Amino acid sequence: MKSIKILILVLFFQTNIFSQQLQKRDMRAAWISTVDNIDWPSKPGLSDQEMKGEMIRILDNLRSYNLNTVVFQIRPTADAYYKSSKEPASHWITGTQGVAPGFDPLQLMIDEAGKRGMSVHVWLNPYRVQKDTTIDVLSKSHLYFKKPELFLTYGKTRYFNPGYQETRDFVAGVVGEIVRNYDIQAIHMDDYFYPYKIVGEEFPDDKAFATEPRQFKDKEDWRRDNVDLIIKQIRDTIIANKPEVEFGISPFGVWRNKSKDSEGSNTVAGATNYDDLYANILKWQKENWIDYVTPQLYWHIGFDRADFEVLAKWWAAHKYGANVYIGLGDYKISKTAKEIEWRSTDQIVKQLEMIRSLPLIDGSMHFTANVFGKLGDSFRKPLLEKQYKYIALTPESNRITRIKPQPPMETSVLKKENKMVLSWKPGKDNKKYVIYRFSNGKITDFSNPENIYYVTTATNLEVPNADFQNYIYAVSALSTTQTESYPVQFNQVKK
Fold it and tell me: How far apart, in whole angstroms, are the C-alpha atoms of residue 464 and residue 453?
């Protein structure tokens, strides 16, 4: 993403079935951006209470769209939205780098998203350190002042130098700390590896190339290998700490143009992953280094240089066993948009309908979370009428070892005035719970999302105005790999 604003992403996942069929599993996510305070917090320096309130309102709003995942940006500029022993707290939170709020933003996100049945993917930028070097924001405790030789400046932005092994070791160490300390579903990185090129300015990595060239003579091949190495090292770090955690990449929407490579897409993009960002995404998919890919297809259907439909079909045909979630450019929706296609929500609705006709696409992610708040019912209504009418579970990864949870235990129903409280106790490897509701006094189909009533991390649920003569309730458990247990029916009513 060219924007470096901080955002929170919420992901929507969909299953590999056609649009006319009901989908029980469907990635539906939104990115929550934190840099430049795009999504959360709305500005630096808010009180703890104000920040917590904003986060809860964002999650409540996303939940009202039946989204099931958030992608939370926690390391936008080599800083932290979590408790880190390696990097200072982000200045985007309190206004001063190194000064943390009185709570842990990532843990709050995990807790509150879980209550609403949503998974959390954490979004890290691997190399960017400082958005604008003309502004003095770095804490004196920052690694930049201890190891200045690991950094370089390109344009107005400061980066880690990707050419050094010490850089890769540090970034992998950051990932390892997060994976060990937090109950997350995935580590997520976007398209910022080597930065987008600045016309007339060469990326200043001659010294690193001379110092650590390995076997390479061609600098562009060396740069691609640098990125390959960090992707593989991050993958290995995740597996060594929590192999059930997924690793996903959200690359620029075009791998290569067909004019450069017969395997490329029928596009004429001015920049590509392989040639300009030195990110060989297909290699990472083929080598099983990543679990999912979310190409940023931020163009409309029919766009002459990079047609959304052409690219969605290309990525579906080049998944190589990884899950594919399409990145949608909701942020472009505006009544004054230059391109007429983006002047209403219709474009996103059409894109969702189109990708659901592709059996190999596993879902979608929306950029960015604040769009859902700004558009309100004008966006919510068309989505809930069809694509997001029912709650959907997030897809299981095709690559990680799945953890099969035990069913919940000791289910009971407590009558409470005109309400019922469904309760249960966790079984082994229970992380979330799926509550089903069936009408007409009989259980029918657990594979039908129409029967999903709620998803939560809580071990009880208050059901208003429910009547056991008309409905039957059941609960299943989800493990951290989103694998579902057998369901258990509620049949014991306590006075």
Answer: 12
Strand-pair category, 460-464 with 493-494 = unpaired
Residues β-bridged to residue 150: none
The Cα–Cα gap between 451 and 26 comes to: 15
Sign of the CA dihedral with 231 first, then 232, 234, and 238 last: positive
CA distance 12 to 10: 7
Q: Say whether 340 sits in a helix, a strand or coil.
A: helix
**What is the predicted pLDDT for the residue at 491?**
80
Are 60 and 76 in contact by the 8 Å Cβ rule? The answer is: no
Task: Give the tens place of pLDDT for each residue, 69-83.
Answer: 999 999 999 999 999
Tell me the C-alpha distance between 147 and 169, whole Å.
13
What mean pLDDT is predicted for residues 56-64? 98
Q: Which residue has the tokens 């966006």?
A: 379
The confidence band for 416, taking pLDDT boundaries of 50, 70 and 90, is confident
Question: Helices 377-385 and 346-355 meet at what angle, rounded to 10?
Answer: 30
DSSP 393: B
Q: DSSP for 23-41?
A: -SBEEEEEEEBBGGGSSSS
Average pLDDT over the chain reads 93
Give the tens place of pLDDT for each residue, 188-217.
999 889 999 999 999 999 999 999 999 999
Domains of the chain: 8-385 (3.20.20.80), 409-494 (2.60.40.10)
Burial classification of residue 188, based on how many CB atoms lie within 10 Å of its CB (0-12 exposed, 13-18 middle, 19 or more buried)? buried
Whose CA is closest to 15, among 34, 3, 28, 4?
A: 28
CA dist., res. 357 & res. 355, Å (int): 5
